[in-house]
Amino acid sequence: MGQVNAVTEMLRITDQESNTALHVAAQYGDVEMVEGLLELEGPDFPYPANKNQETPLYIAAKRGYWGVLSVLLDKSTSTAHGGPHGRTVLHAAAMAGDAYAVRVILKKKGYLTKERDEDGQTPLHYAAHLGRRFSVVKELLKWDVSAAYIGDKKRGMTPLLMAARQGNLGTVKMIVSLCPDCSEKEDNNGLNLLHYLAFRDTSSLLGRSLFKLSGIEIVYGSIRNLLELEGVFGMTPREVYNTLRYEKHHRKQKQIKELLEEIENDQVAEEPVRLFDVRNNSTKNLEKTRNAHLVVAALIATVAFTAAITVPGGLKSEKGSEQGTPFLIHEAAFKAFVVTNAMAFIFSVSALTTHFGVLDILLSQFNFWRQTVLYRTHSVSLLLGYATIAMVIAFSIGSYVVLKPSHGLVIASYLICPAFLLCMWGVLNPSIQM
After folding, report:
1. Residue pLDDT, tens place only, 374-383
2. Half-sphere exposure of 296 toward its Cβ, with a 13 Å CA cutoff?
3. What is the reported pTM?
4. If you ran DSSP here, which 8-state letter would residue 432 be given?
5. Labelling 191: which of 86, 237, 296, 335 has CA 20 to 30 A away?
6. How far apart are CA 226 and CA 218, in angstroms?
């Protein structure tokens, strides 16, 4: 009996950080060690938090060790699940972005979905703010959708508003799809979902699918009624967007920017709010965009024109009816090269024509033709994007045509285009958030 007590006492010895042996085992994710310690200590011992206010359960969740989590939840009856700043083990799992760990915790401690930290923020707030945690958001909402209606202490912000504030459009769409009614919630300043989307640059890919400035197209019917609701400045979301980006030296513009500077000082789970990149769509800025477009379009057109003249494989020099024609003219891959190269040329020339034939005329009367100019400028950006993709495909096919005898180089040419398209998808996909 005395020997058993001695072993128990040893297991309860703490280091300088007040960590027990179980804390250390949880830190390293050692499932077998955790199981052994629990068998020696017994399931009823209430393992205390260390100096960082972290219990073994919290440590395992924070580090994403779902194996350790499962053992602790199954074999220990201790209810200690807390962490620093009033957080729970579910907060830690949300911070780690581990959907499986969240699922394991919810099965044993589902009530934690509504537990708040010292700032009044739930695990769903954390997942919404941090982004790239779609599976975590989905698990939390599937278990308890009511958590989507909870506002935090400081600003009364729901998880949906936090996601919009950060520009996490993928998270916004997921929350709205699973809980449409929560989009009607406002913060303490009367700002709604569309106000926060308007703070971000919604003319970009970020908000185009939820908040479109060309007539304000709203994909989700549940948030159409938010369009005309005024916030703290007595302004609708459309007015906020226009004031921030079109109205120079506007008194309310200054007020909005002061609020945004204040919001930028906020933090959730020690992660600060992303800076608001508010740009005025003035004539000066559009001139800069125009110049960039012209350089890119001219470059692509030049490259495509040169490639059309100096075709892969060269030209026949022998006199006769086929003199000056490409050697590879009957190759299917060569024909594909010609088509994609021509597309790159056409798209780039179309962009140049749009600028010289339309935008240069309308820019002189920007205030009157504002929406048309912005729409056409965006159209030119799309044309240049298509031209770039066509040029890369043409390059890949052209490389294949001339490198066919070398199997290794042919494989490399095959990979060029998919690699480029994959990179573009990664950059442009709103579901992949930084």
Report:
1. 667 778 888 8
2. 22
3. 0.66
4. S
5. 86
6. 10
